[in-house]
Write a structure and sequence with these properties.
Length: 169
């Protein structure tokens, strides 16, 4: 079937608009950095955790205060990212929903106790060591170091592996 060619260009205009909308939708879908079917992080409260995860959270934060809990899906399993203040220090725990296993921790570490390669990389990245805060993370058996500090007039955070290679910014 042939489309009637009109003098006012209505058919062409409708086709162009349809294509523009379709391309915009495609571009928005491609811009997403989450895999298809990925769930977003959701803030939850302690009573909302599974019994095993709640028991572990209460044990590892005993004597402290739970600041925030986020439910997420990692490696196809539900986990909780628990942020707490214990003994005046900010700590983070990654806890499995299914059995309450602690899958990861993140604890503060003095900058002068960082591995030499990490300290050198942080000094190079930030242009010095003054004002830096460091956290040592161990998650799924892999160690990383998050360094926070001033760069370009704002506070930024960068993650290094133990060899001093930058992982994220």
């Amino acid at each position: 079937m042939r489309t009637k060619n009109t003098h006012d260009g209505t058919t062409r205009l409708n086709l162009r608009l349809t294509l523009a909308v379709a391309l915009a939708g495609l571009a928005a879908g491609c811009a997403s950095d989450k895999p298809a079917g990925a769930q977003k992080e959701t803030r939850v409260t302690l009573p909302e955790l599974s019994a095993p995860a709640r028991a572990t959270t209460e044990r590892v934060t005993a004597g402290g205060k739970v600041d925030q809990i986020t439910r997420e899906v990692e490696r196809a399993k539900t986990v909780y990212d628990v942020e707490a203040t214990v003994g005046g220090k900010h700590l983070e725990f990654l806890i499995a929903d299914a059995d309450g296993t602690v899958l990861g921790t993140e604890v503060p570490i003095p900058v002068d106790e960082l591995p030499e390669a990490v300290r050198a990389a942080a000094e190079k990245y930030f242009g010095g060591l003054a004002g830096l805060k460091a956290m040592k993370g161990v998650e799924y058996g892999e160690t990383s170091y998050e360094i926070e500090g001033p760069k370009g007039g704002k506070t930024v955070e960068v993650t290094f592996d133990p060899a001093g290679n930058r992982q994220t910014e």
